[in-house]
Write a structure and sequence with these properties.
Blueprint lengths: L8 E6 L13 E6 L6 E5 L4 E4 L6 E4 L14 E6 L10 E6 L4 E6 L8 E6 L3 E2 L4 E2 L2 E3 L35 E3 L4 E7 L10 E5 L24 E3 L9 E4 L5 E2 L10 E9 L7 E7 L6 E6 L5 E4 L5 E3 L9 E9 L2 E6 L2 E6 L10 E4 L11 E9 L5 H8 L6 E5 L22 E2 L9 E5 L6 E4 L8 E10 L11 E9 L12 H4 L4 E11 L3 E3 L9 H5 L8 E9 L4 E3 L2 E2 L2 E2 L4 E7 L2 E6 L4 E2 L7 E11 L5 E5 L4 E6 L2 E3 L2 E8 L3 E2 L4 E2 L2 E6 L25 E4 L14 E8 L2 E6 L2 E6 L11 E4 L9 E10 L5 H9 L14 E4 L2 E4 L13 E7 L7 H7 L1 E4 L8 E2 L6 E8 L5 E3 L3 E3 L1
Parallel strand pairs: 4-14
Antiparallel strand pairs: 1-2, 3-5, 5-8, 6-9, 7-8, 9-14, 10-11, 12-13, 15-28, 16-17, 17-28, 18-27, 19-24, 19-28, 20-21, 20-27, 21-22, 22-23, 24-25, 25-26, 29-57, 30-31, 31-57, 32-56, 33-53, 33-57, 34-48, 34-56, 35-36, 35-44, 36-42, 37-38, 37-41, 37-44, 39-40, 41-42, 42-43, 45-46, 46-47, 48-51, ...
Length: about 900
């Protein structure tokens, strides 16, 4: 029988047959439809695209939900690089399926080699000699999209709506990808060498030397008035400060006659009363000059002669670094900021004069720049979009902490903020490598405390972490945070000195039995008048009010006559609670141990008989709205308050039965100026609770299946002033533009808990903390590449000369075994080898990667500048601090 085609309807009929007595039976027929086979809907990058970023993660989107285990590197997923890179590992990759988005992401283990053709193949069904392999989906039957159908509970991705969260468990048939899918792209070329078109490069790191001689010579500049200040990477003497008396004149012969790209880093000191110019070139007259700067309101402008301006309606702010690129391609002008294109103009006619080329003011001496400039580059060609991004992207800029969690909590940012924990349990990381993550087991013993000090005391930040949740928590107060910074000083009645009035302990309690009482999380205890009964509060006591005492001794459920004598829900029988009177028919309980509303489930009980005890002759003052827990306690000594402050990021809460998976980011603090408990209970950190000190990013129930249970996902949160965004796997899930920026932060970061409470259960990997808002594409890049962090030089990168012997301390890496790191030693008679880029370009190699053994080099007799570079297996390179030997 021939194989049936997929996604087609068939009818089969068995015609009537005769028995030996010639009796003819009825015809039998059946209709059915074959399962639709998976297909590729699209792939990224576009097939045969060129000049692609080396940080690109190829992606393939399928027409249906695929099985994660069907994507195996080197078998069903294949990647080839042409030409073959010199480093063995530069074409390695990790395939990961983002199940709910039907997307396969091919994560390069390091950035792709430059100017290389990358060919990706996803295999359909093929026989490897022993079995059928290929990318496949399981038959889902009527379950539709609920779950990938993996029957191994240890790997099962939970999701969907009950009872189908295990959908596919009994479907053994696999449906393979129809055909092989293949596409390719070519990465961009080198941006630093002689063939890149880089004709001028002024690093401005305490010198005005040209660091590129691609035009045949170095065009060094004279500096007589500029002060050296901290640069964009917080390096001392890493940039120059420009003001009314400072500028740099570049060689006029460097002004390009055709296409060009000018890129630099700028730091705006303030908004002047007039325009301020970063650089200008040409001569007077429309179309004869070109200037880039800022208006008095802080908006970038391009002046192409005689104040003929193109002004952008955007403000990049003051006291922050911004990367700017102005690119000309004939009459097309493109302007980039922080790696992204923000302006294109295709009707600009330029004929630049050769009168002046100046950094720091307009060529006529006006519109001076008041701020810093770092790393000025001029290319004699127009850069492509991905080239500009790769030029901008610097993974370690403002990286306050980086914790790979590969068996320990060492900080690999270079800031020496190592974390401490009572126990480290290693596990496989998000890239599948054994020992590259830590296991957290819902205990206080494995929480990690990191001393951040004031490094994240800023409204501008980015927090990133990979997580693998391994438990569910149906109670909405049982948060499971990946990261937190929180300080909570809780107060109970016993810790408030004279809070408990002596009369309270000697109160005469009156017993009341009330029938037909409703109990719910929303209304508390309630009963309206009717059916011969008065409303609840009147029946309990005509004087009952907020602040009185109340107890419960017994409950009977009239629905099934079940009785309770010790506790019911979270209410403890015989314990004293404070009354919060909502209205005449409703009361809620305030737990005096923590001043939180008593937590109840979502179950509503319609008819209860409750034995109460009431104390209405002693009243405790609860100032504020108890409904929102904005409470101030008052006694004879005055007002009492506690304090709390911080934030937490979680993705762990999962109600498996309802198919709900959550991720959230929350910030909170106490308003001590008004002596209030503002949103003291973290359960109440929600916008609907009217707490102005809170910003909450929570998908609530509007987004289901967004967090994979027992699967890796990367979460990131970005604060940019009043803007706040939450990402999952580099895609924005929620955002707000009205964040309260007057929040205060605790100095310690906790990984896997909040102050040793709410412990995480699962695995955590690659925690990154930035004191700046990363762009969308930067977050996507950190998600895309497995190993993007260069080794950290030992002893802060210091080099030492002892006689003619240069020595250095061993570097350490986040992924590679430190013994596999390779070193290169370079020299130059001039100060042109301070950073990786310039040391690779201008350094004379004294010992290279494969023959530079040990941590020293002898017989260095020449008076020159020396530097050491260190490289890991993924091709990431870092630089030590250059040293001059006299």
């Amino acid at each position: 029988m021939a194989t049936l085609l997929d996604n087609l309807s068939y009818s089969m009929k068995i015609e009537g047959y005769k028995d030996f007595a010639n009796n003819i039976g009825d015809n039998v027929s059946v209709s059915f439809k074959t399962t639709e086979g998976p297909d590729v809907e699209n792939s990224f990058p576009t097939d045969e695209s060129t000049k692609v970023s080396v940080y690109t993660a190829p992606q393939v989107t399928f027409s249906t939900y695929m099985d994660p285990d069907s994507f195996v590197a080197g078998d069903t997923v294949r990647v080839s690089c042409s030409p073959t890179p010199d480093d063995d590992h530069r074409c390695d990759f990790v395939p990961r399926l983002d199940f709910y988005n039907k997307k396969l992401v091919i994560h390069p283990r390091g950035k792709w080699p430059e100017d290389t053709k990358i060919e990706v193949t996803i295999r359909g069904a093929f026989d490897n000699g022993s079995s059928i392999h290929g990318a496949y989906a399981y038959l889902q039957g009527g379950c539709g999209t609920q779950g990938p159908g993996i029957r191994d509970e240890g790997k099962l991705t939970q999701g969907g709506t009950a009872p189908y969260y295990n959908c596919g468990e009994y479907s053994d048939d696999r449906v393979f990808l129809k055909n092989d899918h293949q596409f390719s792209f070519t990465t961009r070329g080198n941006l630093d060498n002689a063939s890149s078109g880089l004709v001028l490069h002024y690093t401005l790191d305490n010198n005005t030397l040209d660091h590129s001689d691609a035009d045949g010579s170095f065009q060094d500049l004279d500096n007589t008035s500029l002060a050296s200040v901290e640069g964009r990477d917080n390096e001392s003497h890493g940039a120059y400060l420009f003001n009314s008396s400072g500028f740099l004149d570049l060689p006029v012969g460097s002004i390009p006659s055709g296409s060009f790209s000018i890129c630099l880093w700028s730091y705006n000191g303030n908004y002047p009363s007039t325009k301020s110019t970063l650089f200008s070139m040409g001569s007077s007259g429309v179309g004869s000059s070109l200037s880039l700067g800022y208006t008095s309101s802080g908006k970038p402008f391009i002046d192409y002669g005689n104040d003929s301006l193109i002004t952008l309606n955007v403000n990049y702010g003051i006291l922050k670094w911004t990367h700017l690129c102005l690119i000309r391609n004939n009459n097309l002008l493109n302007f980039y900021a922080d790696g992204g294109n923000v302006l294109s103009s295709d009707n600009l006619s330029l004929s630049l004069g050769a009168t002046s080329f100046r950094i720091g003011q307009k060529f006529d001496g006006t519109n001076v720049w008041n701020g810093r400039i770092d790393d000025f580059k001029l290319y004699d060609r127009s850069l492509e979009s991905d080239e500009v991004f790769d030029l901008y992207f610097e993974e370690s800029r403002n990286l306050e902490g980086f914790f790979p969690l590969a068996g320990d909590a060492k900080d690999h940012s270079g800031n020496n903020r190592d974390g401490t924990s009572g126990r480290f349990t290693s596990s496989s990381g998000w890239d599948g490598t054994s020992g590259n993550a830590l296991q957290f087991d819902n205990t206080t013993n494995d929480d990690i405390e990191v001393p951040l000090l004031s490094s994240l005391h800023t409204p501008d930040f980015t927090l990133i972490s990979w997580g693998f949740p391994e438990t569910t928590a149906t109670n909405r107060t049982k948060y499971k945070p990946l990261l937190s910074t929180a300080k909570m000083e809780k107060h109970s009645m016993s810790s408030l000195g004279g809070f408990e009035a002596s009369e309270f302990n000697t109160c005469t309690w009156s017993s009341k039995t009330e029938d037909n009482v409703t109990l719910s999380s929303e209304d508390g205890f309630s009963r309206s008048a009717g059916g011969g009964l008065t409303n609840l509060t009147t029946s309990l006591s005509g004087n009952l009010d907020t602040g009185h005492g109340i107890k419960i001794n017994s409950i009977k459920n009239n629905k099934d006559n079940s009785t309770y004598s010790n506790s019911f829900e979270s209410v403890r029988f015989g314990s004293v609670y404070l009354v919060h009177k909502v209205d005449d028919s409703k009361i809620k309980f305030i737990d005096p141990s923590n001043l939180n509303a008593s937590e109840l489930s979502n179950v509503s009980y319609q008819s209860l008989e409750i034995g109460f005890q009431v104390c209405d002759n002693v009243k405790i003052s609860l100032l504020g709205n108890a409904e929102n827990i904005n409470i101030t306690l008052a006694d004879a000594e005055g007002q009492k308050t506690g304090s709390f402050q911080g934030w937490f990021l979680e993705h762990h809460r999962s109600d498996k039965e309802d198919g709900l998976h959550y991720q959230r980011y929350r910030e909170f603090h106490t308003d001590n100026s008004s002596n209030k408990f503002d949103c003291y209970d973290t359960y109440l950190l929600k916008p609907e609770d009217h707490c102005p000190a809170i910003t909450n990013l929570d998908d609530e129930t509007t987004k289901r299946d967004t967090v994979d249970y027992k699967a890796w996902q990367q979460l990131a949160v970005r604060g940019d002033g009043q803007d706040l965004s939450l990402f999952r796997n580099a895609e924005i899930q929620a955002s707000t533009t009205s964040r309260n920026t007057n929040l205060r932060y605790h100095d310690n970061l906790t990984i896997g808990a909040i102050n040793s409470d709410y412990q995480y259960k699962g695995r955590i990997d690659d925690v990154r903390l930035y004191s700046r808002p990363l762009t969308d594409r930067e977050i996507k890049t950190l998600y895309a590449v497995v190993d993007i962090h260069a080794p950290v030089p030992g002893d802060s990168g210091k080099l030492i000369f002892s006689g003619n012997t240069l020595s250095w301390s061993k570097a350490f890496d986040d992924i590679n075994d430190n013994s596999s790191l390779k070193y290169r030693v370079v020299k130059n008679t001039e100060d042109r080898i301070q950073v990786v880029e310039t040391a690779m370009r201008n350094g004379v190699v004294l010992c290279n990667w494969d023959n530079c053994s040990g941590l020293s080099l002898q017989n260095l007799n020449e008076s020159a500048f020396y530097n050491v570079l260190v490289k890991d297996n993924a091709g990431n390179i870092n630089s030590y601090q250059k040293i001059k030997k006299n």
